Amino acid sequence: MASLPQSLTLPFGGGTSVSAAGGGGAELSRERKMASAEQLVLDLSNPDLRENALLELSKKRELFQDLAPLLWNSFGTIAALLQEIVSIYPVLSPPNLTPAQSNRVCNALALLQCVASHPDTRKLFINAHIPLYLYPFLNTASKSRPFEYLRLTSLGVIGALVKVDETEVISFLLSTEIIPLCLRTMEMGSELSKTVATFIVQKILLDDMGLDYICTTAERFFAVGRVLGSMVASLAEQPSSRLLKHIIRCYLRLSDNPKACDALRSCLPDMLRDATFSGCLREDPTTRRWLQQLLHNVGVSRVPTLQAGTGFEHMMVN
Known about the structure:
InterPro entries: ARM-like, ARM-type_fold, CNOT9
Oligomer: single chain
Order of helices and strands: HHHHHHHHHHHHHHHH
Number of strands: 0
CATH superfamily of the largest domain: Leucine-rich Repeat Variant
Family: Belongs to the CNOT9 family.
Radius of gyration: 23 Å
Structural class: mainly alpha
CATH class of the largest domain: Mainly Alpha
């Protein structure tokens, strides 16, 4: 990585100087933001200043254009962020993570998510195998708030990677066994963590390589199917339309594989075949359409018709 000059002369966001812009107020504000970001990035390399720099950068990261390349290309910055991550490994087991420790490392993770999201740094992020540093956090079992926050923020980094449909990203994640870690969170995490983990699995399935991977062996398919089925049962008691949407999309994508579709004919939860979630999906025509298509794919010959305005649209499958 190139060294960041102490003079803070690294161009940030490609901006021109204040004088070149005629000294306009907007340009002056932009220059001040750039200088602020550059100084905070420099502060990350100073152990005495790092905690405040992490906090300020994580809070303001949306305001700083092209923060990700600045983080990646500045000397020692990524190493400092990884140092923050590995420093809490000893308190993962037995679980002794404090709220202050969790907040600090999550600020570092928020900056890594920024790097994972940026088109100029995403591939570099993957090639450096940086997501592997997060996997120990996803393998934790404590349901305390500090651990839940840690898992959720770690999932956010992975979620940022899969938001852009790139087979290279999916290939990397599959090679590093991300699926079992997501399934673990889908079983025991909070609703929000479950939602992000299910979204990651959904995005992996939507890639042909991911679908093939899951459906190559019965063991993998039924591992995913078992967790999805368990989540459906839980949602019958505590509905979440957002989580249900991702679950149904996962099932629909699985039904695109002939072998998986055959298996779903017998293992698709009955609660997706009847009107259990009619209220949950009342305001979500997209997910209702997905469910219709799923039931059609698995050969459900008849689904109860509900009164207009009470849930599913008329769903008679030929």
